[in-house]
Please model this.
Amino acid sequence: MGAYEALAASYDRLTNDVDYEATVAFYQEILKREGVSPRRAVDLACGTGSVAVLLARQGLDVVGVDQSEEMLTVAAQKAQDLAPAPQFVCQSLENLRLARGVDLAVCALDSLDYITNPEDCARAIARIYRALNPGGIFIFDVNTPEKLRAMDGQVFLDEDEDVYCVWRGEFDEESNICSYGMDLFQRQGTMWRRSFEEHREYAYSWTQLTDYLRRAGFTDIQVYGDRTFRPPEKGEQRMYFKARKGRIRRKHNSE
Model:
């Protein structure tokens, strides 16, 4: 079973410790420092739409993009009472195509790590650059390679009264990919349904992603520790990136 097919229905319950409000507050602080007040935003790899909903509640015109139809179904249900509600689109980031340009693009919770072919990741970043309006900002985070390597051989458990999830990590040095198999047990009435998913994340380095951003045309690139305004430190679990699409410079005719 593909990643997030079975997990979608239980994702929010298993990730109720994720502080989406703090993540969006960090986005807002970056935008404040950059002097940017976006009107239209895209939440890339939006999953069940938690970030998209928070951005919409702040008055932004939001589109959420994800390649999992199951996750998007949950997202649409979560946002149905908002006015205007975010629009949700099923696309991969490598083939991103928006009907209108955006002023802000965000990609939360190490979603770019799920693009396990580096050239596909570079292609996705180039597509994101094209989707941004001039002067637009791109903010995303990834797991550090140190964190993904440390997951090798680890076993994790998440549960509540209706969901039981066990996942095991394995890091392959040759492919630079962390794989974790997930056994998921979901209560359905008096019965339990078991399913299995495999998730894979590529351990992108700070320099690798910075190079992809530059190749796409981004400038003003900054790399931060986990929701801080300092560079990532040894032992950091997550790092954030901020980049800007340059403004169009108009030529003025001399008289």
